[in-house]
TrEMBL record:
Its EC number is 1.6.5.2. This is Quinone oxidoreductase 2. Residues 8-131 form the NAD(P)-binding domain. It is an enzyme of class 1 (oxidoreductase). GO terms for molecular function: NAD(P)H dehydrogenase (quinone) activity. Keywords: Oxidoreductase. The keyword Phosphoprotein does not apply. Pfam families: NAD_binding_10 (PF13460). It comes from Streptomyces fradiae ATCC 10745 = DSM 40063. InterPro entries: Ergot_Alk_Oxidoreductase (IPR051604), NAD(P)-bd_dom (IPR016040), NAD(P)-bd_dom_sf (IPR036291), SDR_fam (IPR002347).
Length: 251
């Protein structure tokens, strides 16, 4: 069966994928910039060949909005080819082909690299994680009195643990190509999600709808990042908030 390598295996998604795969009895090798003994920065690739030696499957969760994902993917694909990896699993985002947002364009470009890699591959697109929505709202709430959100933008956040479970299942199977998208259980406005955050956190702010401009904003307003017909997730944003703000919870 071979070792399964998880890039970004200490991150928001990767650590849950790693946990699921180990629960399934598989040997998992975590690759990230600070994870000994396989501390690898995919942008320069040093140590990558050793990290992939003997691997049968790679789950590519490592990503950074600050840039470098395409270069990292090329290095990973080249090294996977040298190592004889049979299955490359990649996590992407719903709407990367519909929303002209810079990070989304990068994710779409990496999808293309995976598809043309010559390896067996699987790509899963999901909607935004609850964790990301919460971080965005926490950042906006740093302003006094107000919590601004983009006007008229819907969202469909999904529970990261559910995504991890599905991604691990895909990694344990055969290459499946582009699989059906995965979305959270509810499509809601950002204003509604902001109000839920304020109630859970006990913070007092007035939610303000801020109209923006540009093609990306129009695409988000039109719901290009949603998977309305694939609302297969079950955990709600309130479920996530209850765990996050529970007494003794981390963060």
């Amino acid at each position: 069966m071979g070792t399964i390598v998880v890039t970004g295996g200490t991150g928001t998604l990767g650590r849950h994928v790693t946990e699921r795969l180990r629960e399934a009895g598989r040997e998992v090798r975590v690759v990230s910039r600070h994870s000994a003994p396989y501390a690898v920065d995919l942008r320069d690739g040093r140590g990558l060949d050793a990290a992939l030696a003997g691997a049968g499957t790679v789950v590519h969760c490592a990503t950074t909005p600050s840039g470098g994902d395409e270069r990292a993917a090329r290095r990973l694909i080249d090294a996977a080819g040298r190592a004889g990896v049979a299955h490359l699993v990649y996590i992407s985002i719903v709407g990367v082909d519909r929303v002209p947002f810079g990070y989304y364009r990068t994710k779409l470009a990496v999808e293309g690299l995976v598809e043309r890699s010559g390896l067996g591959w699987t790509i899963l697109r999901t909607t935004q994680f609850h964790d990301l929505v919460l971080r965005v709202l926490q950042g906006a709430a740093r302003l006094p009195l107000l919590l601004p959100v983009p006007a008229g933008v819907p969202d469909q956040p999904v529970e990261v643990r559910e995504v991890a479970a599905h991604l691990a299942e895909l990694a344990l199977g055969e290459p499946a190509g582009r699989v059906p998208d995965m979305g959270g259980p509810e499509v809601r406005t950002l204003e509604d999600l902001a109000e839920a955050y304020l109630r859970a956190s006990g913070r007092r702010r007035r939610v303000v709808r801020v109209p923006l401009v540009g093609a990306s904003y129009r695409a988000f307003r039109a719901g290009g990042h949603l998977a309305r017909d694939r609302a297969v997730g079950t955990g709600t944003f309130e479920d996530h908030l209850r765990r996050h703000f529970a007494p003794g919870a981390r963060g």
